[in-house]
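=== RUN LOG ===
request id: a7f3
mode: sequence -> structure
chains: 1
length: 103
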Amino acid sequence: MQPPPVEQGGGGWLDAIGSFITKNPQLISGLAGAGASIYGAHRMGSARDREVAAQVEAEQARLEQRKKEHEDALAREEKEREMQRVAMIINAISRTMPGLAGF
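=== RESULT ===
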């Protein structure tokens, strides 16, 4: 359908649009339905975005926890190796200098 022509000297283009919509009421329901569909899709998309963001945040927290556990394990292993080195040095000293064995 073509919109009605704008009358010269009349109300202008807003009146022409209003007249066109008034003469074609099915447009209002169609536009309202389309708007509702778009709004619903937007709301669903926003909800999905929040869900994905929460999943990403939870995964980041799990990765940070695993990283901390790994770093802690490495620190324990390093401390254990250092203690073994100290024990080997003490054993070597006590074998070479028996008088210092009980210090």
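=== NOTES ===
The mean pLDDT is 84.
The helical segments are 13-23, 26-96.
=== END ===
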